[in-house]
Specification:
Blueprint (H helix, E strand, L loop, with lengths): L4 E2 L20 H14 L4 E3 L9 E5 L13 H5 L2 E23 L2 E19 L5 E7 H14 L10 H15 L9 E2 L3
Parallel strand pairs: 1-7
Antiparallel strand pairs: 2-3, 3-4, 4-5, 5-6
Function: Removes the formyl group from the N-terminal Met of newly synthesized proteins. Requires at least a dipeptide for an efficient rate of reaction. N-terminal L-methionine is a prerequisite for activity but the enzyme has broad specificity at other positions.
Enzyme class: hydrolase
EC number: 3.5.1.88
Length: 190
C-alpha cells in the first residue's frame, strides 16, 4: 500500500525515533509498504518519520543509480543494494567531507549541496532482526546518512549554511502550506 509522505513542517519529522523490537505490529507489511511508497515517489530512501511513525526504521534501494554514468565504477555494488535498517546507530564517520546535491521526498522541489563524511560504520538490525556492523562509502554512505538523519529528527536543510537557509525559506513555507506540486501522495501539516 502506498502511504502519504509527510511534508516539511510535520512535527513527526523532528522527533527522534524510538527503537522497536521484533514484535512491532505488522512490521513486514510496514517494510513492504515503505518500499512501495518509496518506489512510487521515485525515491532511493525512505524513513519511518516520513510516513508518520517516530520509530528507528528506514529503507534504501540505490539500484536505480547503477544505470547512472556518474556511478559506472561502482555500478556492481549499487545494483543490488536494497536494505532495511532497524534501530540503526552510526558508530563512526570518517574521511573527507564531500558535497553532494541532496533532495528529500518530504521537501519537494528543494535541492542543495550538503557536506557529509565519505565513509560510515553503522550498526543495525535487518528485517529478520539479525545484527550487522558494516562499513559503507560513496553514494551508499550518503543515502544512509540522509535517512539516518530522519530517525534522529534532522532534515538535510539543517546542514545548510545560514545564507542557504534564508534562500530556501520561502520554498519551505510554501511546502508547509501545501503549495507544491508533486506526483506522489503527500500529507501536509495542518
Amino acid at each position: 500500500m502506498i502511504l502519504p509522505i509527510r511534508a516539511f513542517g510535520d512535527p513527526v519529522l523532528r522527533k527522534v525515533g524510538k527503537n522497536i523490537d521484533k514484535d512491532y505490529p505488522e512490521l513486514q507489511e510496514l517494510i513492504d509498504n515503505m518500499f512501495e511508497t518509496m518506489y512510487s515517489a521515485n525515491g532511493i530512501g525512505l524513513a519511518a518519520p516520513q510516513i508518520g511513525l517516530d520509530i528507528r526504521l528506514f529503507v534504501v534501494d540505490v539500484s536505480p543509480l547503477a544505470e547512472d554514468e556518474d556511478y559506472i565504477d561502482i555500478a556492481g555494488e549499487l545494483k543490488d543494494f536494497r536494505k532495511v535498517f532497524i534501530n540503526a546507530k552510526i558508530l563512526e564517520e570518517t574521511g573527507e567531507e564531500w558535497k553532494f546535491n541532496e533532495g528529500c521526498l518530504s521537501i519537494p522541489d528543494v535541492r542543495e549541496d550538503v557536506k557529509r563524511k565519505e565513509t560510515i560504520i553503522i550498526e543495525y538490525l535487518d528485517e529478520n532482526f539479525e545484527k550487522h556492523t558494516e562499513t559503507f562509502s560513496d553514494i551508499r554512505a550518503r543515502v544512509i546518512q540522509h535517512e539516518y538523519d530522519h530517525i534522529e529528527g534532522i532534515l538535510f536543510t539543517d546542514h545548510l549554511s545560514s545564507l542557504k537557509k534564508k534562500l530556501v525559506k520561502g520554498k519551505l513555507q510554501k511546502i508547509m502550506k501545501g503549495e507544491t506540486d508533486v506526483n506522489y501522495k503527500m500529507r501536509f501539516p495542518k
